[in-house]
Amino acid sequence: MKVAIVLNTSWNIFNFRMNFVKALLEKGYDVHTIAPHDNYTHLLEEAGCTHHDVKMDSRGANPIKDIALTFELWDIYRKLKPDIILHYTIKPNVYGTLAASALRIPTINNVCGLGTVFLKNNLVSGIAMLLYKIAFLFPRKVYFQNPDDLALFLNKDLIPAKSADLIPGSGIDLSKFQPTEFKRNKTFTFLLISRLITDKGIMEYIEAVKKLKKKGVDARFQILGAKDPEHKRGIQLPVIDNWVKSNTIEYLGTTDDVRKFINEADCIVLPSYREGTPRTLLEAASSSKPIVATDVPGCHHVVEHNYNGLLCKLKNSEDLALKMEQMLSLDDATLKKFGENGRKKIEFEFDEKLVITKYLNEISSLQAAG
Questions:
Q1: Which of 12, 61, 211, 221 registers the highest number of CB atoms within 10 A of its CB?
Q2: CATH of the domain at 300
Q3: Does pLDDT of 212 surpass 80?
Q4: Please, are residues 350 and 172 in contact by the beta-carbon 8 Å criterion?
Q5: Spatial distance between the Cα atoms of 63 and 93, rounded to a whole number of angstroms
Q6: 95 falls within a domain
């Protein structure tokens, strides 16, 4: 059986779905990856996948590029003739599904997150919903990563109820992200892990840090993640440089392995506007780290207030600063308990094996029906 996996980067496949890819290969499936070529493409091929390059710009909507992407995917699918296509991220979900439907190839889609377009009520959000409604007439199954996103699509009649199902994000490899022995830093350390775009609450984090520093709070404030000034909501380089020069934050750059940075922090922060199931928080909770996050879809499914972290109000730097200061003031026993509770929650609800099993069962049922 020939299985195609379509994403917006090879990096994404390798970093977040490699155990699933390995499970498919172990079952004897012929696995084809379809994504833009990057530094991780060769690793997919070395693992046993056949890779197909595609041009895809994930930064924004361009009608001409998006139409071209639909035809490019249609051409790849037509030549490849996969038995099933697995789509992840927005553009493969929409344009890949339209291409596959024209060729009558069954698909399984994964709504990894809705982005801020669904927080607005304007022409762009209206077009986005229309595209989803048309595309989602065709998939065999559409997995949502949290119940809020699933409910939104059902309430707005964007998907047939029979096609919709729920999975716990991408899941997390519990053996890779393991707790280390509890140790509080001499200077309490907050770490935000994210691409530097406004949707992730970066500006609110900076404002909260400034408020805490003004109050004389003694702590370290870090950011780990890629700069993306070309993104339409990306933060410009001079702004980031100014934060570093003024000692507002420590910018740690990027890494292929976040574990060292997570383990060296006391608390992970993510003031995002909306998420599917945020990978950063899964990794943090699996590593037994307390968390401060916004009370929004995605985040509040990983973080329970006063259980494994603290939830703050959306786009509210004042409340974020309050929750960060509250976290810093907790005693060691409470911090340790938050971390332990987070690990238990991840083990019970977000184990990667749950996601892999669900996908394998759906593919097997298609194979049996075929």
A1: 221
A2: 3.40.50.2000
A3: yes
A4: yes
A5: 16
A6: yes
Are both 286 and 245 inside the same structural domain? Answer: yes
Among residues 126, 134, 90, 120, which one has the least CA distance to residue 276? 90
pLDDT at 119: 64
Asked if residue 150 and residue 53 are part of one domain, the reply reads yes
Residues 114 and 193 in one domain: no
Same-domain check for residues 14 and 132: yes
Six-digit token string for 66: 């998006």
Alpha helices by DSSP H, 113-265: 123-135, 147-155, 202-214, 237-245, 259-264
CB of 277 within 8 A of CB of 302? yes
* Residue 200: pLDDT over 80: yes
Q: Is residue 97 part of a domain?
A: yes
Exposed (0-12), middle (13-18) or buried (19+): which is 223, by Cβ within 10 Å? Answer: buried
Is residue 177, in this structure, part of any structural domain at all? no
- CB hemisphere CA count around 213 (13 angstroms): 14
Are 307 and 324 in contact, with CB atoms under 8 Å apart? no
Beta carbons of 12 and 36 less than 8 angstroms apart: no
Residues 164 and 253 in one domain: no
Q: Specify the pLDDT at position 57.
A: 74
Three-state secondary structure call for residue 285? helix
Give the whole-angstrom CA distance, residue 318 versus residue 323.
9
**Is there a single domain that holds both residue 311 and residue 216?**
yes
The reply to whether 255 and 357 lie within a common domain is no
Q: 17 pLDDT band (50/70/90 cuts)? A: very high
- Contact (CB, 8 A) for 74 and 68: no
User: What is the residue whose two structure tokens read 């060769």?
Assistant: 42
Q: Residue 205: pLDDT above 90? A: yes
Domain containing 31 equals 2-171+351-369
Q: How confident is the model at residue 267 (pLDDT cuts 50, 70, 90)?
A: very high
Res. 144: pLDDT tops 70: yes
Structure tokens at 253: 């750059």
Residues 6+ apart with CB under 8 A from 30: 1, 2, 3, 50
- On whether residue 179 sits in a domain, the answer given is no
| Secondary element (H or E) of residue 191 | strand 189-193
DSSP letter assigned to residue 119: G
